[in-house]
Design brief:
The modification N6-(pyridoxal phosphate)lysine is found at residue 36. This protein is an alpha/beta fold. 41% of the residues lie in helices and 16% in strands. An eight-stranded parallel sheet has the order 7-6-5-4-3-2-1-8. Helix 4 (89-95) packs across helix 5 (105-114). The structure holds pyridoxal-5'-phosphate.
Length: 232
């Protein structure tokens, strides 16, 4: 078995264990394999081991891989999770199934306009800055409701939920805090009538904390593919 197949088994075991501790059904949490910086061959190995949803951060790099894996396209889901500039929205609207990193209306409007009519609506999450000053991406929590309302009205987008990338913390209590704030915001938006079903939170280092706080998608890179070389 490839190391990637082994790693996927280990990550699924972590998800199941955390779900049990949280009294949640393991299949209420889906695994997004974050393949940025890794070659198409590694994605193919993960696919062979049963993984279907993949997350990418960089537009040019991801387009090359989506093309190289075109033979598998019908059975794969591609999620864009990186910072998105307005001059790069078109290929994302054309080639991805999800975007997790929408944090301003202009980007959402462009994605909706550029989404091809032949494709189903693009699934989007609002990226929320739940851990304050240090991170520049993400809408402020107090602005999330207005942005969610505006995005929910766009014809070729389907607003699914919220995403966050909190500051790393080493102990689980500290890790849970920003995840809890994201979940509370999610509940607040739902109580305001915004239909959402997705909380995209948790990475290799804080998967358990995220599952305990209600994550429905965990985004895992290192624990599946190994350490990144950071060529970007
Ligand atoms: C790289 C990345 C991940 C995966 O992080 P790991 O710590 O390698 O699991 C998850 N989410 C986003 C937005 C990322 O950029």
């Amino acid at each position: 078995m490839s190391h990637i197949a082994d790693n996927l088994l280990a990550v699924h075991a972590r998800i199941e264990h955390a779900a049990r501790n949280a009294n949640r059904a393991p299949d209420s949490i889906s695994l997004l394999a974050v393949s940025k910086t890794f070659p198409a061959a590694d994605i193919r190995a993960a696919f062979a081991a049963g993984q279907r949803a993949f997350g990418e951060n960089y537009v040019q790099e991801s387009l090359a891989k989506i093309e190289a894996l075109g033979d598998l396209r019908a059975d794969m889901e591609w999620h864009f999770i990186g910072p998105l500039q307005s001059n790069k929205t078109r290929p994302v609207a054309e080639h991805f199934d999800w975007v997790h990193s929408v944090d301003r209306l202009k980007i959402a409007e462009r994605l909706s306009e550029q989404r091809p009519d032949a494709l189903p609506p693009l699934n989007v999450c609002l990226q929320v800055n739940v851990s304050g000053e240090s991170s520049k991406s993400g809408v402020a929590p107090e602005e999330a409701l207005a942005l969610a309302r505006a995005i929910a009205a766009l014809p070729k987008l389907r607003l699914r939920g919220l995403m966050s990338i909190p500051e790393p913390a080493s102990d689980q209590q500290a890790q849970r805090e920003p995840h809890r704030r994201l979940r509370q915001l999610y509940e607040t938006l739902r109580a305001q009538g915004i239909e959402l079903d997705t909380l995209s939170m948790g990475m290799s280092g804080d998967l358990e904390a995220a599952v305990l706080e209600g994550a429905t998608i965990v985004r895992i890179g290192t624990a599946i593919f190994g350490q990144r070389g950071y060529t970007h």
